[in-house]
Amino acid sequence: MIEAKNVSKWFDGVQVLHDISAVFETGKTNLIIGQSGSGKTVFMKCLIGLMTPEEGEILYDGRKFRALNSEQKRQLRSEIGMLFQGSALFDNETVLGNVMFPLKMLSKMSHEEQLERAHFCIKRVGLENADNKFPSEISGGMQKRVAIARAIALNPKYLFCDEPNSGLDPRTSILIDNLLSDITHEYGITTIINTHDMNSVLGIGEHIVFINKGHCDWSGDDKTIFRSKSESLNDFVFASKLFREVKLFLEREYEAEENSDNP
Amino acid sequence: MIIGSIKSFGRYCVFMNHVFRVPEKWKEFFKQLIFEINKLGVDSIPLVIIISIFIGAVICIQMTINIVSPLIPSYSTGLATREILLLEFSSTMMSLILAGKVGSNIASEIGTMRVTEQIDAMEIMGINSASFIVLPKIVGFVLFVPVLCVLSMFMGLIGGALVAEFTSMLTMGNYIFGIQSFFNEWYVWYGIIKTLVFAFIITSVAAYYGYYVKGGSLEVGQASTKAVVSSSILILLADVILTKLLLQ
Ligand SMILES: Nc1ncnc2c1ncn2[C@@H]1O[C@H](COP(=O)(O)OP(=O)(O)O)[C@@H](O)[C@H]1O
Ligand SMILES: [Mg+2]
Question: pTM for this structure?
């Protein structure tokens, strides 16, 4: 479980995050949703310590991140996997080299064990026969898969994903979403996913935190999100015509429910 | 402006403190080291050869044209060519040229790694990215640069010899005699020592600018320009100081 308590962050005097508190549960896909520019990436970077919030506290299963010394931080880092928005694969390494990288640098495994683990991860994300390709030679969806394989190589307890399906077609997006969800449940990882895609929310959103202009306006799950009274959340959720129609449909359903409840 | 420079210098020192750490995995370090020596050093050989031959030839021609006094012995053409090559060209000028090639390469490579979050990806794994990326570049280039320096001296002298061979401006015997007379071995070492310092400046300054890029590809381009400009100025500054220290 990861907790954020009253996190605030400024850039050059401009406040980007306003007093955000949130809880991310173990073994679940936790989603941070919000418009582009609302502060999702900054919040995630504060959570993993790539940025330091001026105020507030981050707790990893009760361990205060701020209070850790550098050796403990390294230890914690080895339990974290991260999937960056642009995949952030190492350009001069092959697919296999990328997945091997954390194993080579951080594990005490023998070369054979490393290879075995890397191949296992590559297979787990459904990529085969691409071992010797370079990142520039494979598609965006495949790059995302490689990045996932690299992120899970060291068996992380915490997995962070920044917009894992931005720039992908809807079908590939769903595949990536499902892959992340499966991996989360399979290994009991605390997964946190940034997204602005409502399809992901409906597909894999077990716990959802909504950020609007740096404020945490709402949190809940994929059922309650449609019944929320929060104006900003409704603006976000029902921005597209499709979801406005879904809303009309749901409202009729709720009415029917209520009518059947008290005849 | 002055405060800005002091701040940058402070940040540069902090950065160097991160870079100079004992590598966590020696095997990976040596792999990177060989890779960088190849990329930064060996790949610069053709450029060094071409430029040195031409400049050697031009210096030789200039000396022949400009030294036309019955009081000055004719072998002084070769002697002057050699001194210019050993003292300034093969160290300082060559380093300025390499600052353009190697410096911009390093700054743009590291800058791209920064803006595409590859550096963040390493940090998140708990790897000291500054040391992992930058140390092999600095060590590799500093180790290899004496080869480039000596090669440049040699090729420059050959350039002069080509002038002697293919023009009637001076005779080969005269040139050979010139480049052999009053030879001071220390000048070669002086050139090499200077080049070592310059190589450190080129790689570390370029890495610094690349590592702290913020933004996108536009900023990467700007960083690589800044890296070349700053390291060129620093090279010239260091040249003055080293010359005073080493040749007095
Ligand atoms: N390094 C930075 N320096 C200054 N401002 C930043 C920085 N990173 C992000 N911001 C600002 O923070 C706000 C939130 O950005 P971000 O978290 O990237 O949004 P998103 O929700 O799209 O991920 C934006 O207004 C952005 O301009
Ligand atoms: Mg973002």
Answer: 0.90
Please provide the CATH number assigned to the domain covering A1-79+156-222. Answer: 3.40.50.300
- How far apart, in Å, do the first and last CA atoms of chain A sit? 43
Segment (H or E) for A193: strand A190-195
Atom of ligand 1 nearest to the CA of A39: 17
**Local structure of residue A211 (DSSP, 8 states):** E
- Rounded to two decimals, the ipTM of the complex is 0.87
The residue whose CA is least distant from atom 9 of ligand 1 is A42
Residues 6+ apart with CB under 8 A from B17: none
Give the number of whichever ligand sits closest to the CA of residue A214.
1
Distance CA A120, CA A118 (A): 5
Q: What is the position in ligand 1's atom list of the atom closest to the CA of A38?
A: 21
Pocket lining: A260 vs ligand 1, CB cutoff 6 Å: no
- DSSP annotation of A40 reads H
pLDDT per residue as tens, chain A (263 positions): 999 999 999 999 999 999 999 999 999 999 999 999 999 999 999 999 999 999 999 999 989 998 999 889 888 988 999 999 989 999 999 999 999 999 999 888 999 999 999 999 999 888 888 899 999 999 988 999 999 999 999 999 999 999 998 888 888 899 899 999 999 999 999 999 999 988 888 889 999 999 999 999 999 888 888 888 888 888 888 888 888 888 888 788 878 877 877 65
Identify the contact set of chain A against chain B, taking CB-CB distances under 8 A: 45, 48, 50, 73-74, 77-78, 80, 82, 84-86, 88-91, 101-102, 104-106, 154
CA angle at B162 for the pair B158 and B167, rounded to the nearest 5°? 155
- The 10 Å Cβ neighbour count of residue B26 is 10
Task: Name the residue ranges covered by the structural domains of chain B.
Answer: 25-247
